[in-house]
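Input (Diamine N-acetyltransferase):
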Amino acid sequence: MVTLKGEHIYLRALEPEDLEFIHAIENNEVIWELSNTQTPYSKFLIKQYLENAHKDIYEVKQLRLIISNYSNIALGMIDLFDFDFKNSRAGVGVLIKDTAERQKGIGNEALELLVQYCKTHLNLHQLYCNISEDNEASLKLFSKHGFQIVGLKKDWNFVNGSYKNEYLLQLIN
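Output:
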């Protein structure tokens, strides 16, 4: 049986107590490039989002889960977005909040759990992600899980005064 519990971390649904954690992530300008965010989010808007987080993925077309350790400390988030039931696919994004916690296998374990969940519970045919050409850590992470680069979107994102290329990666079952 598939579970959302790994050896070191588990994935859980959003809770009202996650307000400060999500607010800190969504308002960190350093990571706006990853999420294509342009403006800060208020606590009010995030609270509204959390109040609706219980809605079904088939209705809202996305699923955000908290990556937590077994001391119940939130470490990051992993998302399914653009969920497309008809074509059996979804986009994936993963973020570990603190840079000191990155490259320790947390994202690896979270992605492994999510990929299994998508195969077993959502019966998805494919997952995809969009990764900046210079994000070597993410390219390595997703490649490790079988995602393959299928295209390069040239001058795709305008970041800090210049355009950056972005890869499209797919994992097809």
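The chain has six helices and seven strands.
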